[in-house]
Amino acid sequence: MNVCEMKDQELIKTYLTGEDKAFEILLKRHKDKIYTSIYLFVKDTEMANDIFQDVFIKIVDTLRKGKYNHEGKFLQWAMRISYNMCVDNFRRNKRRTKVSSTETFDIFDILESKDDNMETTMIKSQMHKKVRSLVDELPPEQREVVILRHYADMSFKEISQLTRVSINTALGRMRYALINMRKMADERNMVAV
Where do runs of H (alpha helix) occur along the chain? Predict the structure, then answer.
């Protein structure tokens, strides 16, 4: 079987037999989701890169020690590690940084989209900035659920496991986040295009 067609669990087993290419494929397969979720939590490119590297160092270390046993749920396991490292980082710094205009990374640069004309591209870019600003103003618990659901593409079940709250709590936080975002958009006379 071609290494690129292997499932995550098979890639891990292959990597543990000494085939480094298998881990490269595993990394490439999941790096965008993991990095994006980290970046959206810390809002700093350098910090996100550092945490991302730490996440994969921890993953490699755990795999090599034979302590991985998440039954084919590699992405959820990796997301839990990245989430915990972001929380640890937040606790250490006791503050969140905002995305500045000098940042070189933009989440919307890595999302796939059909080619649009320049006007549509500019309108979308403006809307994305407005939505990001609304998400940034949400209370931390609501912001966390929005990021995990819409940017990391996680299910509410996965979110509840990752954040260690019930599914109903995760759903409630999403509901209140959407209510708050609509309210803020109305207050600012933001119009959806």
Answer: 8-16, 20-42, 45-64, 74-93, 107-110, 118-137, 140-146, 156-163, 167-187
pLDDT per residue over 100-120, tens digit each?
444 555 545 544 545 555 666
Query: Other C-beta atoms within 10 Å of 114: how many?
Result: 5
Classify domain 117-193 at the CATH class level: mainly alpha
For 129, the 3-state DSSP assignment is: helix
Structure tokens at 62: 């755990």
Instruction: Indicate yes or no: pTM above 0.85.
Output: no
| CATH code that applies to domain 1-95 | 1.10.1740.10
In angstroms, rounded to a whole number, what is the distance separating the alpha carbons of residues 140 and 83? 13
Residues 6 or more apart whose CB falls under 8 angstroms from that of 48 comprise 35, 38, 39, 42, 105
